[in-house]
Specification:
The chain is mainly beta. It has one domain: Beta-galactosidase, Chain A, domain 5, CATH 2.70.98.30. It contains no helices and twelve strands. Strands 2-1-8-9-10-11 form a six-stranded mixed beta sheet, with no helix packed on it. Strands 3, 4, 5, 6, 7 and 12 form a six-stranded antiparallel beta sheet that branches. A hairpin with a 3-residue loop joins strand 8 and strand 9.
Length: 183
């Protein structure tokens, strides 16, 4: 039995990386040297990304909910006779240093499919992944953000993901206690 893969609605893959990747039937793989800003959307959300593959804004319906820039930062830890950072202590040695997203060195993979779309960005020490589900249920109402941080070979280094937004919450700061109290 011979299958015609051209009529299947399968994922399209876009890769910005120094390594080459070949197309695998039935998937289409586009390898690009330079990536333009792009958007992923479902029936509820529209997520815009910059040319480095990092989130730049989120829209709900026709209105932009928030301008969001994701940055990754790292801190050194205090040295000497002072207490060191650990599992429950955050004792930085100074202000945060931004982990630069370098278009020539960092890989970006965009997978657009009928069930979900995903952006994977490879930065120094970090693999950052944003997933947008295309389901009518609760999955389609939010973005999933996953970060894999590899600190092997590093000593006394703290890494954080920072959201730079135009959301004005005043003096209030909200936290969800690591997802334990999300309503």
């Amino acid at each position: 039995m011979l299958l015609n893969f051209r009529n299947l609605n399968v994922a399209r893959v876009v890769v910005r990386d120094s390594r080459s990747i070949d197309s695998v039937v039935p998937f289409t793989v586009d390898v690009k040297e330079r990536l333009d800003p792009f958007t992923l959307e479902n029936s509820h959300l529209k997520a815009s990304f910059d040319s480095n593959g990092l989130l730049s804004s989120i829209s709900h319906g026709e209105r932009e909910t928030a301008s969001v820039a994701i940055q990754f930062v790292h801190y050194g830890t205090r040295r000497g006779n002072q207490m060191m950072s650990g599992a429950y202590l955050f004792l930085p040695d100074g202000p945060a240093q931004v982990v630069e997203a370098n278009a020539e060195e960092n890989g970006v993979r965009i997978v657009e499919g009928s069930i979900r779309s995903q952006v994977v960005v490879t930065l120094p020490l970090i693999v950052h992944q944003v997933t947008l589900h295309r389901s009518p249920g609760i999955d389609g109402l939010h973005l999933d953000i996953d970060n894999l941080v590899n600190l092997s070979g590093q000593r006394n280094l703290e890494v954080a993901m920072r959201f730079v937004t135009n959301v004005n919450s005043g003096a209030a700061f909200y936290s969800d206690l690591n997802g334990l109290q999300v309503n």
